[in-house]
Amino acid sequence: MSTVTDGDAPSDAPNMTLYINNLNEKIKIEELKKSLQAVFSQFGKILEVLAFKTLKHKGQAWVVFEDVSSAAEALKRMQGFPFYDKPMRIQYAKTKSDVIAKADGTFTPREKRRRHDDRAERKRRDQNANQAGAGLNPAYAGAYGGVVPLLSQLPYPRGAKSILQELPPVPNNILFVQNLPHDASSVMLQMVFSQYPGFKEVRMVEAKPGIAFVEYGDEMQASVAMQALQSFKITPQSPMLINYAKK
Predict the structure, then answer these.
(1) Average pLDDT in the chain
(2) pLDDT band of 188, cuts 50, 70, 90
(3) Burial level of 32, CB count in 10 A (0-12/13-18/19+)?
(4) Are 40 and 16 in contact, with CB atoms under 8 Å apart?
């Protein structure tokens, strides 16, 4: 787990870490991190999302991209985006994230941080051991604790691609979204799909986790969103499968 320092305030110098503030403080930390991951992953690979419960870090988060160009595009496109009813304020972080410092060889661990990392590593090993004991492969554990199948493991006789090839429905203004992580929320999906013109609403199916319906104003607007978000990954293990809804 990376840490931030008091110096991790905003900076004008482009880098791979974005500092975000004016976030809704009523949102639980884990939900906040998942939603940030969902919204920002369209711009490039995210190495980590940081948010903390401490009072001085409330309403703030850090999103670490793999490269500067992804961070720059995200800053430009998401500045002022209404996130949980509050416009995000985004700037480049002043100091490097630990994960970046480790990659370029400039990372210097602090004793307190090392003890924290050791505890986290022991916890991770214990969780993997428990999963192995339950017959689960830890390598397939979802980003948020659930076991998410790979596309090749989906229960379709001719593979995942056949879903989109079997008698496709007539184009219309409602999209049918599959292969969502089971802990995906309507708010999370709304943030992803509302970036495209004509968005109206997201309807989850409570009895069937992993699917949702997204409605737009007309067929053309729905088509634009489907093309842009096809295979979009809300979590690394869950590329979305989008088709027109059957009417």
Answers:
(1) 79
(2) confident
(3) buried
(4) no
Q: Which two tokens stand for residue 95?
A: 């100091």
70: its two tokens: 């992804």
pLDDT digits (tens, 9 = 90+) for 100-150: 555 555 545 555 555 666 677 777 777 766 656 555 554 444 444 444 445
Name residue, tokens 């554990």: 141
Total residues belonging to the chain: 247
Alpha helices (H) along 94-159: 98-104, 111-133
Strand 10-11: give its sheet, edge to edge. 10-11, 89-93, 17-21, 61-65, 46-50
Residues 6+ apart with CB under 8 A from 17: 62, 63, 64, 65, 71, 92, 93, 96, 97, 100
Q: Model-level pTM greater than 0.70? A: no
Can you read off the two tokens belonging to residue 131? 């999963």
- Stated as kind and residue range, the H or E segment containing 242 is strand 241-244
In three-state secondary structure terms, 200 is strand
Q: Which pLDDT score, from 0 to 100, does residue 216 have?
A: 96
Instruction: Report which residue type is found at 45.
Output: K
Q: Which of 171, 186, 175, 146 is nearest to 38 (CA)?
A: 186
Contact 100, 40 (CB under 8 A): no
Q: Which residue has the tokens 């979009």?
A: 232
The angle, 0 to 180 degrees and rounded to 10, between the axes of the packed helices 29-40 and 68-78 is 100
Q: What confidence category does residue 3 fall into, taking pLDDT thresholds of 50, 70 and 90?
A: low
